[in-house]
Design goal:
Length: about 210
């Protein structure tokens, strides 16, 4: 085989490999886009959207309820505690003076919405759904807002799990809403890193201008 033929052969191999690489990369991006769209469809289910709307509008009152219930929890069974929370949520519904279904909801629906966000966080954590742009753009505030609003509730659920386990160690990944908290930690770390980079960039420009 002449050198020209050899070169042509390897050129063909290189082109083929490049084509395969670009095709696979395109397929990967397509799968990522599909996974993002399916996740958003899942998250924006009408009932879940209704629950998130309720939690957003009643954020302050929900925090107060969780604080009150946590302080009075004592040795109560979880069924009794969850019943008290649901009763308080019903009082919120009664105080709205509205017949709209948008304003009437039970706490079970809110809890399902919370677990849905935790499930999405799990998919991101395990790389089934890309971290960007879902957690850094499309739903950043939602993850952070819910983690902040339900912080006391999550801790209460975890405390009851530990008590039920009789003091036995519970792995972190098995704790209630661990994925949501993990994701919010990642988002906050990225925000701090970005802020530090911006601050260092401003300092550098200030130094250059002084020169």
């Amino acid at each position: 085989m002449e050198w020209g033929q050899i070169a042509f052969f390897w050129l063909g191999v290189a082109v083929t490999l490049l084509f395969v690489h670009l095709t696979l990369r395109g397929m990967k991006k397509q799968r990522q886009l599909e996974s993002i769209l399916r996740t958003l469809e899942y998250v924006h289910d009408p009932e879940l959207r209704q629950a998130r709307s309720f939690a957003f509008r009643q954020e302050k009152r929900l925090k107060e309820i969780f604080d009150e219930v946590t302080k009075a929890a004592g040795n109560k069974e979880w069924k009794e505690i969850s019943g008290e929370i649901d009763e308080e949520v019903k009082k919120i519904n009664d105080s709205t003076d509205s017949d709209s279904t948008e304003d009437r909801i039970n706490f079970h629906q809110v809890e399902i919405a919370l677990k849905t966000l935790d499930n999405v966080a799990f998919l991101i954590k395990k790389h089934y759904v890309p971290y960007k742009p879902l957690a850094t753009n499309l739903m950043t505030n939602e993850f952070q807002d819910w983690a902040r609003t339900f912080d006391l509730y999550i801790e209460l659920r975890r405390e009851r799990s530990r008590r039920k386990a009789g003091g036995k160690h519970i792995p972190l990944e098995n704790l209630y809403c661990n994925n949501l908290r993990w994701l919010v930690d990642q988002i906050e770390k990225d925000e701090l890193l970005l802020a530090a980079r911006r601050a260092s960039g401003v300092s550098l420009w200030a130094f250059v201008l002084r020169r």
